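User: Design a sequence. Structure:
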């Protein structure tokens, strides 16, 4: 552990994730490790000395602290250099237990990182994606997070950007947490890169230091509240009454704004474990008494979900049937059978409403899936444009922009194919999303042409500020406006169906 070259890692494998600071790649030669390659912008602000100190931290700890730290975090392992300059670092691959499987709207299953943000949704959403957790799980997980933060603070570490994006959970056996993006933490007040905060998780301490311990504690309180509320942004502690009066009282104090009144993590961990103990274990149903008489097992009843459509009784036919019933009333049948028809109409109306809800949910799920799939592209584009403007990594940037344009084309086609007839403001959202991807694709293609001319003609001023770059900038502005218009609607509609809000920069 310490210092390695990029060439020694061998060919890079699959891209596992991308963010504002860089991109994470699999390492086929070392499958237990991954490589985080910093973006050009991040390298300009990098403090390599702090990264070296972070990598060396575990070696100076006791055996128990070292074991606990490495179990609780994807800790940086080796500094990676390329042509004598720091390019990123290696870290352990996230253990399999911190992945989870989601059930998609089409019935397929998707394995992904168990980011805690998934848990900050309503129970109906969790049921749909087949993430089944109860308050026992929530209390166990929060107690483990509190204990882990106490360990970090004792070792001179503060998280700073404590949010559900960089915190994973495990449902395999005992609930546990696991921190990622550890290079974004503070080590004894020093940082590898300037710290940023996640939207809706901002909390400056009284002395203005974002990563002070009391800031971590405040954001932990937010996590407790939002995990029990199933809400991404609430600050109302009422949901924690389910966990008992003691936990609720700690949350009210923790959100008061006064650092002096804010309960410390030791109190939180103790109270959470006490609340978990008070819940006890779920009681298993009593086993059936053995019978001396052999009886054929009774088949369980089969229940048809109300919202499921059958081939002969689909949504359109329900509506036609309802209209037929109204006509029957008007033609005189209702004169002697009004009560029966009213009852029947009520049943038909309920069936139509249930079908409408199911359709709207499936359509909202489709929009959310498209948004998730499009998020990683923007980071690559931003990095490529930055490199072109500085006349570096030209071939790679052109290649990345070509791949981005192809991805935008796929997103554009998927947006055009969206069915949004039952979602509130669906047509408006679809139009804005289609427009955003169309202009993004045009911008990527223009920037790619710009890069090709830089390779061919050199980086003179006339080429650096040529027509392709200007066209790319113009298309980018149009795309940005369409994205802003879209998220303004989606951030109202999406949460109604259990989906998170989006920033326009992440589309």
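Assistant: Done.
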């Amino acid at each position: 552990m310490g210092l390695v070259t990029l060439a020694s890692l061998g060919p890079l494998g699959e891209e596992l994730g991308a963010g504002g600071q860089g991109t994470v790649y699999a390492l086929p030669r070392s499958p237990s490790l991954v490589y985080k390659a910093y973006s050009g912008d991040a390298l300009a602000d990098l403090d390599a000395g702090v990264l070296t100190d972070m990598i060396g931290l575990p070696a100076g700890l006791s055996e128990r602290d070292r074991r606990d730290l490495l179990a609780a975090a994807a800790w940086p392992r080796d500094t990676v250099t390329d042509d004598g300059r720091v390019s990123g670092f290696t870290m352990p691959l996230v253990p399999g237990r911190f992945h989870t499987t989601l059930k998609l709207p089409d019935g397929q299953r998707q394995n992904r990182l168990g980011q805690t943000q998934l848990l900050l949704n309503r129970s109906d959403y969790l049921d749909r994606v087949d993430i089944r957790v109860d308050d026992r799980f929530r209390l166990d997980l929060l107690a483990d997070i509190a204990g882990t933060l106490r360990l970090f603070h004792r070792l001179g570490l503060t998280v700073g950007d404590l949010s559900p994006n960089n915190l994973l959970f495990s449902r395999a056996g005992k609930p546990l947490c696991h921190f990622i993006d550890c290079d974004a933490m503070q080590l004894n007040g020093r940082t590898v890169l300037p710290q940023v905060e996640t939207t809706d998780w901002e909390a400056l301490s009284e002395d203005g230091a974002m990563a002070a311990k009391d800031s971590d504690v405040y954001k932990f309180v937010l996590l407790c509240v939002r995990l029990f509320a199933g809400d991404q942004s609430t600050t109302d502690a009422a949901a924690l009454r389910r966990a008992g009066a003691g936990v609720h009282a700690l949350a009210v104090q923790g959100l008061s704004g006064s650092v002096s009144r804010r309960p410390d993590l030791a109190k939180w961990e103790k109270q959470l474990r006490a609340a978990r103990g008070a819940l006890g274990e779920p009681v298993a149903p009593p086993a059936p008494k053995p019978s001396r008489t052999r009886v054929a097992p009774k088949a369980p009843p089969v229940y048809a979900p109300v919202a499921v459509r059958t081939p002969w009784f689909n949504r359109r036919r329900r509506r036609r049937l309802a209209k037929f019933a109204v006509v029957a009333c008007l033609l005189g049948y209702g004169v002697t059978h009004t009560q029966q028809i009213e009852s029947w109409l009520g049943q038909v109306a309920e069936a139509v409403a249930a079908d409408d809800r199911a359709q709207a949910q499936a359509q909202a799920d489709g929009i959310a899936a498209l948004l998730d799939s499009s998020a990683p592209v923007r980071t690559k584009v931003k990095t490529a444009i930055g490199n072109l403007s500085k006349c570096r990594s030209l071939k790679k940037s052109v290649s990345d922009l070509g791949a981005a344009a192809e991805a935008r084309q796929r997103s554009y086609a998927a947006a055009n194919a969206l069915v949004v007839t039952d979602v509130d403001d669906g047509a408006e959202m679809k139009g804005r999303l289609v427009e955003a991807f169309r202009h993004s694709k045009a911008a990527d293609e223009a920037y790619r042409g710009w890069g090709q001319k830089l390779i061919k003609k050199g980086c003179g001023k006339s080429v650096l500020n040529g027509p392709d770059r200007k066209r790319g900038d113009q298309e980018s502005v149009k795309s940005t406006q369409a994205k802003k218009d879209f998220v303004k609607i989606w951030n109202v509609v999406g949460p109604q169906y259990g989906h998170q809000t989006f920033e326009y920069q992440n589309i």
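The longest helix spans residues 333-389. The radius of gyration is 27 Å.
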